[in-house]
Specification:
With about 375 residues, the protein is of the alpha+beta class. The chain has 2 domains: about 10-245, no CATH class; about 250-365, no CATH class. It has helices spanning about 20-35, 45-50, 50-60, 135, 200-205, 230-240, 245-270, 280-290, 300-305, 310-320, 325, 335-350, 360-365, and strands at about 80, 90, 95, 105, 110-115, 130, 145, 150, 165-170, 170-175, 205, 210-215, 215-220, 220-225. A two-stranded antiparallel sheet has the order 1-6. Strand 12 (about 210-215) and strand 13 (about 215-220) form a beta hairpin. Helix 7 (about 245-270) runs antiparallel to helix 8 (about 280-290), helix 8 packs antiparallel against helix 10 and helix 8 (about 280-290) packs antiparallel against helix 12. The radius of gyration is 24 Å and the shape is globular. The two termini are about 20 Å apart.
């Protein structure tokens, strides 16, 4: 999970400051006001439905889900979803009852529905982001790591839910949206779902030590310590609602961590043996960069949390050993993305795949992830 930037440039039909956008919005407001007298009605979400806009939005995350960070292999599977639902919103009485041991007890009862939801923001670029189908729609029979066990058939997925902080009205906690046909003003809302455009996952989430369940290792995400009460609620409900501790993600995190540990061990072993084979070091550079690269990496937010120091350490070793070869490629630039780009370039320039004569040598020489 990483914080993402808004779409730029902003298409006119997604920009609330343009005449094009306001024209569609006025039409949608009129439809909303006349809905009771209409047999059927539908809003104009042409900004959202525009295929060029969707393609550009997918590019914001280089093919990964903005919520969980998983790489989606098929473009058709990376959905463009509304942070605030464009139509129906389902409201539960207490989105999740947080349990000290598991943080995962679902409150099943619905107490209200907002039929037209956040249609007012249905075409706004700030309300649209790329999501995997699992985070967006959930799956039937999901498996979630809860505590130190696997829980089967656990419901998760954003669907039509958009939890917000309840307010007190006459001494009773209530959802301020109940009784409304739509929500147009979001100024005073306090969402309980993290927004990848606004909320930095690095400050909201941390990761538990790996745990062994039934002979397999997993790493869970949790709310960071010392958060405010509101931020802790935001983090925990986001984890639960999106299924961020589903078995696939917890397993991927462990694999990434183990791969980085193995890479570090190999680098340290080559330092200890004073290995000067540039092909081996170029391979280290490629493998290292791929863990963190926006184009190639899987769960790069997690990788950056647990292994952020490794690329810089590796670059320093390359500069010390191959200074002449590194000139014009490796620098001391502190920008992390620049660092990863430099490692990829060094690896690409100096790795010779023909040096390995058969598959056995490749298996002996590489880290198998």
């Amino acid at each position: 999970m990483i914080k993402i930037n808004y779409l730029n440039p902003i298409p006119k039909n997604m920009d609330s400051s343009t005449i094009e956008y306001r024209g569609v919005l006025i039409k949608n407001i009129q439809i909303f006001r006349q809905r009771a007298s209409l047999a059927t009605f539908s809003f104009d979400f042409s900004g959202y439905e525009n295929q060029s806009n969707k393609k550009n939005l997918r590019g914001l995350t280089k093919g990964r889900c903005a919520y969980c960070g998983v790489r989606v292999t098929g473009v058709s599977q990376l959905e463009i979803e509304h942070y605030r639902p464009k139509k129906r919103v389902d409201i539960r009485d207490s989105e999740f009852i947080l349990n000290k041991k598991s943080n995962y007890s679902v409150a099943p009862s619905n107490i209200g529905v907002v039929e037209c939801g956040y249609f007012y923001h249905g075409n706004d670029y700030r309300n649209l982001l790329p999501s995997c189908s699992v985070c967006n729609k959930g799956i039937n029979g999901g498996v979630v790591v809860v505590g130190k066990k696997l829980v089967y058939n656990m419901p998760f997925g954003k669907k039509n839910f958009f939890p917000v902080k309840f307010i007190k009205k006459e001494g009773v906690r209530v959802d301020p949206r109940i009784g409304k046909g739509a929500i147009m003003n979001i100024k005073d809302e306090k969402p309980l779902l993290y927004n990848p455009y606004i909320d930095d996952p690095m400050t909201l989430f941390s990761y538990k030590q790996k745990i062994n369940i039934e002979g397999s290792f997993y790493i869970k995400v949790s709310a960071k310590k010392k958060l405010s009460r509101y931020k802790k609620l935001l983090a925990n409900i986001s984890i639960n609602l999106l299924g961020l501790n589903r078995i696939e993600l917890c397993s991927k995190r462990h694999d990434i961590m183990q791969g980085l540990v193995n890479l570090q061990r190999n680098i340290l072993a080559d330092i200890h043996s004073n290995n000067r084979n540039i092909n081996i070091w170029a391979h280290h550079a490629i493998i290292c960069a791929n863990y963190f690269d926006e184009q190639q990496g899987e769960l790069i937010g997690f990788a950056r949390v647990i292994g952020r120091r490794l690329p810089n350490f590796l670059r320093a070793q390359l500069l010390a050993r191959f200074n002449a070869v590194s000139l014009g490629v490796l620098t001391n630039n502190e920008d992390f993305n620049v660092l990863i780009k430099e490692l990829k370039e060094f690896g690409g320039n100096n790795y010779n795949e023909d040096e390995y004569s058969d598959i056995n040598e490749i298996i002996d020489g590489l880290i198998i992830l």
